Write the structure tokens for this entry.
Amino acid sequence: MNDLRHTIRILLKNPAFTLTAVLALALGIGATTAVFSVVDRILFRSLPYPQEERLVSLGLVAPIEPQEFMLGADYVEWRRQQTPLESLTSWSGVNDCDLTDGTPVRVACAQVEANFLRTLGIQPLLGRDFTLEDDRPNAPRVVLLSYGVWQSRFAGDQNVSGRTLFLDGLPATVAGVLPRDFELPTLARVDLLAPQALDEAAQQRPRTGRVLRSFARLKPGVSLEQAQSAMQPLFQDSLKWVPPQFQKEVKFRMRLLRDRQIQDARLTSWVLLGSVAAVLLIACVNVANLLLARAVGRQREMAIRAALGAGRWRLIRQTLTESVVLATVGGMFGCLLAHYLLQLFVAIAPEGIPRLNQATLDWRVLQFAVAASLMSGLVFGLAPTLARTEAQSLIRTTGRLGSRGGFRQALVAVQIAISLVLLTGAGLLLRSLWNLMNVPLGMRTSHVLTASLVLGQQRYSQPAQQQAFFEQLEARLQGLPGVEALAISDSLPPAGATRTMIYSVIDVEGRPPAAEGTGGMVIWRAVTPGYFSVLGVPIVRGRGFEERDLNPSENAVILSSALSSRLFQGEEAIGRRIRPGRSGNWLTVVGIAGNVLNAGLNASSDPEYYIPRKRVVPSAPAEQALSGISRRAILILRSPMGPEGISKWIRSEVAVLDPTLPVTLETMPQRVGQLAARPRFNAWLLSLFSAFAVCLSALGLYGVMAFLVAQRIPEIGVRMALGATPGIIAKLVLFEAARWTLVGVAFGLLGSWFAASWLNSLLFRVSARDPLSVGATLLVLVVVTLAAAWIPSRRAARVDPMVALRCE
């Protein structure tokens, strides 16, 4: 208590020192705590499933689908014969569906196997789980409500189980309510769960069946490696049914559920956590330097304490008490700063970062903040002890600079080195972001607005109904003022859900089929004739679609330049015929379109082809209806008007035709910008932390230089009395700062060389050791540090030698 009272008196007597130290610590601890609250959910915290370390995702991977999947026939066989799994379950993904009773609303529905929740170890909050009877084909429909739908749609009614609701116009009984923290293994949003009702006999007849996602719980004591080995015979048996030319490209994968969820977020999380840890280290070094500077002024006090009998441990305890008090106060303000930083992170973060919306300053995060504060206090609190001299020499001190000044200089060099590492990483990410935002798209995006719609399954079940709706909507929108061009497509570049086909199953008339391999993926789109003009995609040869191509009897197709070159290998493609999927009608190539970026901003584009959205004849056979018409469509408009005004008109026109239909509106620049949201978020955060580090380093350099100038005033007075000019004195001080800066830069370049390789997978079209990025960050750091040393150098140059000598 005596140490504590003395510490409080000392800190209150030196408000400038106390405020500077607390601000530095608050910055370091606040940033570290905010980032830890985010990455804790990703890297360290347990998933919301009992014994989550036994949950795995398993299945096949192929060029057509990078995430593991199962075909129905294989799944049924594996479920019957597998031995290392306690439980194996499947689901069919999330689809849109409509609650049509009362006020119609579109919700996200997932179809799952009856044992889905039991495999995950989840019990419904209310009601019951699905049973095997619920999961049979043609069984009465039952659903499980998410907690959010239960609250918003049924006002948290405790007796909701057994109630009937209408899903896509058909009745379904509510079986129960899911827990509040329930999440799908893929982290996709879901509002309702319904039984999958898998017909096992139907799956095995074609030896393919439905595409399923599979998850399992390992038996107790079975490791992931053991389970993988045990499942290999089943995989090899399934591989026999894969066409021989594709077998080399199909693999088996089993991985922990956490790895399935995190994927590319793991590296980003470690990079951000390492960055803020470096900021916290710089803050500690800064405060250590402040304490060292202050320790020189307290040498007589410590010497007198030692002379009066205080032992080394007693002096260390006093020093550590002061540092821990500083760290505690800095930690309190750091938690306040972390609260606002976390709000900022959530506000600017893009979609797709796992569990970011769950990040909060809960007790676990606050415990981390307390631990970080105490550890920081111990780290910088030991610095004055390490630089302590003997009591006998201290008591004779007359104010000259102590022999351990090099220790403070070494700390400044450490700050500069760490700052350079952070700045280099930020520079590389910013350069990568610039390249990403300026990659050629192959189309024009300015003044283009898109409207995405998904028609209800019950009301628009037939292709003719779907076509009638979109034709009416197209006619109404074309009459709007300011609409220069209009088109409809089932998908839209540069990314998003598309229809795909294996390259090797596209036949070219007069040529034998591909002998081996899938050849990668080919994207195809069903579009109206105005598609190419509204997006500014050039037709480099031949022609675009015309109204006659919409007739069911016509079979026109337009190829991208990449697909044309690959299929016809330099020969003229116009007038030639292809047959996608090795079935159906032969299509005649009428045009070659320019290549468009269609697989995201940072991936190689896939070849693609376009077919017209043909008119549907109600009496036509079923295959004729599959001409591109579907319940999903994107309307693309080019207009010089602002998006706000025309968006209101689009919504009103849709409401006239179907008031229950939701519409998603966005401009093409917004759509493209969203693809760079993750890289922008990473670059922004690392740049922010780098700025913190540079500011702290500059502050540390300024503090040390100002202290040294104050300590060397007598020496400066002697030098000036002997003829040194103010310019020489300023150069002397700047040279001293430059020495420490160069030492820090040398170690920083070495650290950057090794650290940059970690960023390789986050970069786009820039080397991890790009000399331009390293040179630019090096210039910024040198300018900032020398600017921080310039003020003390000017103060040294203005020293009056007479005043300095009188002090001596």
